[in-house]
Amino acid sequence: MHGGLSPELKSLEQIKRVARPTDVPDSGLLCDLLWADPDKDIQGWGENDRGVSYTFGPDCVSEFLQKHDLDLVCRAHQVVEEGYEFFAKRQLVTIFSAPNYCGEFENAGAMMSVDDTLMCSFQILKPSETKSKGGRARCRMKCGKLWHTAAHVFQAVVVKIPSLDLKSEQLTVAWPGFSPSPPGQSILGMA
After folding, report:
1. Are 74 and 166 within 8 A, CB to CB?
2. Rounded to an integer, what distance in angstroms lies between the CA atom of residue 125 and that of residue 116?
3. Residue 141 has pLDDT above 60, yes or no
4. Does the chain have fewer CB atoms within 10 Å around its N or its C terminus?
5. 22-44 burial code (b ≥16 CB/10 A, e <16)
């Protein structure tokens, strides 16, 4: 999904029934799927600093996954420093694919792949060492379309991974042409 979960989401069928194309309302299911954010410091649903939608705690993620017999929520939408970031005991991952977002951040970008054995791996696009001077306007012209397209790649709502064991996986980072981490380095910080 692009943003997050919604207190209105009772069945995945609701997502299929969303009219497309459509304008995004100021509240409700579609708004939440686009703009809700995880918050490790709360339980349940909270007010979002963005002024739209909600924040949701780790308990909301666990309840959602259990209710729908799923293992992982994959979302985009939020700048994260390393390009990806786990939440709720690795039950949700935020993937942000635009390094140096809008020339205003020094974040890495990432892409997640799931292979035939359901192993999740991440390719990291390291941030450049110099920021662009164009700010937001430049971002919209130069990387806006790339970011928007890349974000939609991850709108697969949730992934059913029956034997996912992210607690013990060692993932190696590699991205052709972008200074990868040294071979064999764990990006999850596990030995």
Report:
1. no
2. 23
3. no
4. C
5. eeeeeeebbbbbbbbbbbeebee
Q: Are 124 and 167 in contact (CB under 8 A)?
A: no
Tokens of 174: 């590699």
Alpha-carbon distance values, 138 to 11, 67, 72, 135, 144 (Å) = 40, 43, 34, 6, 8
Rounded-to-integer distance, Cα 124 and Cα 177, Å = 11
Beta-bridge partner residues of 122: 112
Q: Where are the alpha helices (DSSP H) in the chain?
A: 13-16, 29-35, 58-67, 135-138, 144-153
Instruction: Report CA 42 to chain centroid distance, whole Å.
Output: 19
Residue 71 or residue 166, greater confidence: 71
Q: Give DSSP secondary structure letters for 121-166.
A: EEEEEPPPSS--SSHHHHIIIIIHHHHHHHHHHT---EE--TT--T
The answer, yes or no, to whether residue 139 has pLDDT greater than 80, is no
Helix (H) or strand (E) holding 54: strand 54-56
Distance CA 76, CA 34 (A): 9
- As a whole number of angstroms, the distance between CA 33 and CA 15 comes to 9
The 10s digit of each residue's pLDDT in 31-44 is 999 999 999 999 99
Q: Are 93 and 74 in contact (CB under 8 A)?
A: yes
Question: What is the β-pairing status of strands 45-47 and 54-56?
Answer: antiparallel
